[in-house]
Amino acid sequence: MKKFIIKRLLLAIMILFFVSFIIYALMRCLPTSFVEALANKKAQSGGSKTFAEWMAQLNAVYGLDKGLFDGYGSWISKAITGDFGESWKFTLPVTQKFADVIWYSFVLNVICFILEMSISIPLGILAARKQYSRTDYTITTIALMGISLPSFFFATVLKLIFCVKLGWFDLFGVVGKYHEQLNTPIEKILDMGWHYILPVVTLTIVSIGALMRYTRTNMLEVLNSDYIRTARAKGLSEKVVINKHAFRNTLIPIVTIVGGMLPGLFSGAMITETLFGIPGIGYTSYQAMVEGDIPFTMFYMLFLAILTLLGTLLSDILYAVVDPRVRVN
Known about the structure:
Blueprint: H1 2-28, H2 34-44, H3 51-61, H4 68-80, H5 94-129, H6 134-148, H7 151-165, H8 185-223, H9 226-233, H10 238-260, H11 262-267, H12 270-276, H13 281-290, H14 294-322
Helix pairs in contact: 1-4, 1-14, 2-3, 5-6, 5-8, 6-8, 7-8, 7-12, 8-10, 10-14, 12-13
């Protein structure tokens, strides 16, 4: 296993270099010169530098005055040391801005991940155990509704009902207007938790459907296996058959999805965060893309690539964890 992990990490590093080059090349091929727009904005805001001087400085900083490969070499050599430049929109180092906003998204997505696992897998197993019953049809209907609901539509409906009509929640933000006047840390945490309710409900409802259906399908396949029929023929209780024999084998394909969820824990929910005004990494990256903030956008895309590679590696390792028959050579 140790040798396999080292080999996969080396392969991931090689892939990451190719991905980073593609990201850099795509940014160089943008039809609109955001550098020119930024230089023009800085020149008009006053100061001693002219438009031409700002253009020369910005092109030199981001390697745009060089060829594609030379420019990439200049950018990646700084990126390896953690220097991704300064965000054009937020006028902060990219890594500093990232550190300021990542925890809003992480808390939101971890809560949703726990709820999704806690709801989808048990309901998927229950639907498989009671195939073609009312319970199965009800769970399947809920799953299909979750899959079909666009997050922006569901979030808008929740805001209309609970924010506009009932007035229970604020339309935007993660804290109330009297947050700073609260006396204890517990009260401040509860205030933030209250503002997270609608975003959590939105993400959980639109996410549970796919995993629920996937769990049901795999459980049905396992329940129809010969060794399950043998276990039942031995007189084992249904609880033992499901929990001890069937459930573990059902987890094998599910770990693929779980590993793929790793990027989502840190990458943020761009649409949901934007609609609810949560200053997480998703909303921040959306603002950066709209404003043409190339340094932050490049960092965000590279960050997603790293998470995707780690998620794939995690899936492979989990195969051996959930099933002793799986061995990695």
